[in-house]
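To: structure subgroup
Subject: Chain for Friday's discussion

All,

I'm putting the inputs and outputs inline so they're searchable in the archive.
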Amino acid sequence: MKPVKVGLLGMGTVGSGTINVLHRNAEEIARRAGREIRISHAAAKEYNAEKIHGLDKIDKITDDAFEVVNNPDIDIVIELIGGYSPARELVLKAIENDKHVVTANKALIAKHGNEIFTAAQKKGVMVAFEAAVAGGIPIIKAIREGLAANQILWLAGIINGTGNFILTEMREEGRTFDDVLKEAQALGYAEADPTFDVEGIDAAHKLTILGSIAFGIPLQFDKTYTEGITTIERQDVFYADQLGYRIKHLGIARKTDKGIELRVHPTLIPERRLIANVNGVMNAVLVKGDAVGPTLYYGAGAGAEPTASAVIADVVDVARVLTTDPNNRVPHLAFQPNKLSDMSILPMEEVVTAYYLRMQAIDRPGVLADVTRILGAAGISIEAILQKEPDEGASHVPVIILTQRVREKFMNKAIKEIEALDSINDKIMRIRLETLT
């Protein structure tokens, strides 16, 4: 059987890793795919030849990516350029040219996936994107295929390694956010501009994709609530630890009677949960199905070869079904395109969750009574209170409150009233709390 000819766009970290793994494991991959998989045409503005093995096996390397997608001999295009443009134009052109596409581009899929999948369906080609979420963890395949018998109830994921590294160092070493961020940049975990990582945008891209395949809804990145970790302080990590919780930057998707929750934010979770003990740059996704119960997927969420593992697995999947009827392939978003749900995304103010509140209160009698009165009037029950002794000479004392579950709009109103008290100094720190059961 003739080899599958692949066109590769991008020879950076993941592109180089893809060439290396495909070269090293060529025989094993061919045994799985049923035929040889060969990169015959690649495009890159620049690359490090010393770190890539098997360059001599590539027939042609160019700096023009459109030359690759227009090559009539190419069966599958691997897009590893990243970003929105020109990735979108290249992928759509590849589809127009009847080529299957494999991509690791979460931003592209989250924002333009609906358009791309519609074009692919019309042309009868596949777009595979396992590497777009959680690096080497096969979470897309697990939800879309392995859990196909289930109604997915909810999922929660640590899906950005940079944020997880920062929060881990803050807890284990007592360091400040800014200090750890500088190290993350020095180690290459964070970009010079870390906004996408620390503000949750990267995680929101990935959660948008996970929510779509979990619940069979169109991709809706613009409706995913996104909150970063830049306001988390050492004292919050310390107090959470004292109360038996860990702070993690989670992406949470949940199906409710009122709509779908899609939210990324710092979250307190009980320290006994397995996902609470996922540290450093590692990723993990916890998925609960109605039949199987909770399942946890853990592994490297980034890196050259872990991500290449997912890219090549997608290439193998495509190679296996090149000649099959397009109508009998696994749907892009897990559900048949004409069966996607129109269930709405729940506004954040309608989400029900528990809360961690930290406030600076004047050290005098009656202050706590005022706070609890406001919470009680809003129908908010208190789970625990931690009041610290004031530092010598200090006029204010930190008060930490854990609440039971309440609708966010009621908590917003209560926080506004508490902040208006003359006994409360500065803004209240609010972190949502999930038990993940």
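Points worth raising on Friday:
The first strand starts at residue 4 and ends at 9.
The chain has three domains: 4-136+304-339, 139-300, 352-433.

D.
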